[in-house]
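Self-study notes.
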Amino acid sequence: MLCPCTVTTLPRSGSSVVLAALLASGCGGDLIGPSDAGSVRPLDCSVIGCGESIRLPGLVTLSGAEMRAITVYLCRNSTCVMGTPARLPEQPAVGVGCELPPDANGHCVVWNVSPDRYRLDVAFGDSIGARDGDTFVVRVSHPPSGTVLAEAAESVRYTTSTPNGPSCGPVCHHATLTPITRALPGADGGGCSMNRCEAAPLVALGTTLRLNTCGCAIAPADICGGAHPRAFFRVDAPLGEPLHFTTGTAQITAWDQCGDPAPAQCGGLSGSFVTTRNETRLFGVERFTECGEVAITVTR
């Protein structure tokens, strides 16, 4: 759908005189220079909207029972809202929004990604009056376990875009947040899923995931050793690119495929290696001393 804007130019007479009349609301326009003959030329503006200014897809992935119990807290500057998932979607690729005030700038959606696995996406809409220095807070908690599953609190600097072209509005604002995510302790969603991808929490590049290996099964003897509790996670990254893992005193293991009986590669205490054969980006982590929380940061 196009939004017609009419620009009228007047003939030259001595000095150049330009009259620009923008006849459709929602369109902006540059003045069209004078012509040798009077003319009326339409300036067509598409009506693409801005969408979200901040997107956090796949912030947490949980079972149905776990997702029903979460609380989502979102702030933009001094305006904060809190809510819970309205319900869980029954069909794959179907999203259901959270129960939040209708005028809330932030919103969240729950998606059905596989049997009894649900993904939470969080986003903030573009706002009139967006200014560098705006502060955003995101916190996803699981009250039954006392676990904060994801949190971020940052002041942002925006980049801008004009999806309908520089001569047409609107001007859209975009920013990024870097949340810290944690898996639930224990076997349910806590990374103690052996090598089943659908139950392994996801860590995005440049973010930090906290996994607690206590309660996980002892890793069997394999090329990476064994005799330590091993938790599992997935990485959202292009295949075949070098990945740098920062995990402190923990070992990283990599699988070719979900469900494989043994890992294909191992990393040191802070390893950097390429898993060119890995199609799922499935990894394990184990502490060498005793079980406990491991903070995993993944970068290229």
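Second protein, same conventions, sequence then structure:
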Amino acid sequence: MILDDIIKMTQLRIREPEERGGETASTKPEGCNFVCSGQHAVIAEIKFSSPSAGRIRERTDPGQIAVAYRKGGCAAISVLTEPAYFGGGRPEDIAAVKNAVPPLPVLRKDFIIDLRQIAETRFLGADAVLLIAGLLGERLGGEFVSAAYAAELEPLVEVHTSAEVALALASDAEMIGINNRDLCTMQLQPETTAALAQPIRDAGRIVVSMSGIGGGTGGYPAARPPVCRCLPCRDSLMSAEDPPQTVLEEFVCA
């Protein structure tokens, strides 16, 4: 299974803090607010490949991509740092994005399975970190969400099932992302957001709809307000000929 391979490779990437030498983070994270009143809050993603889509785009300067996304009106930018399947893995990518668009919060997306990765995320200069409930289980709230807040990072907790929603709601995470893709099978299930959103909204948390978010009129029928308030837009932006216009026309003002 692809997910098993990703986790094995992730374990090999985890380093002790002292192994980073004398490097320092480029900026001090300051709190995140991905919600835009009256509009979709678009979290524009920098990702060069994926298991489902293959190669999305040849690698270019992530800072330049971030500037284009900002022109389109995105609320935040997520950066994939997993190298084997998602084309990430360069620690300087987050710093490049932060330096290019300093007002925008940056979310680090990776397969976080060890608390040392929380410290690493803070060190890299991100403002927020993705935590996948299906990987962390009961360790989610008491350990990882708490560690994220202690490191001045905003946790975005990813869920795909009702059991994972319960884990997320038992934590202090304010942002809960519903992944429409099953990470075990990599199959897309577009109805997942609508099926799981209500208890999250009832608890006063922010719903983020993840995966299968395309532009135009039919790209995300189950992921519109009031079902969700944030949209991480991935392959459709990275492969777009005009990313700023795509962000503005197909997502922010949809």
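Instructor comment on the second fold: Residues 22-29, 215-219, 247-254 have pLDDT under 50 and may be disordered.
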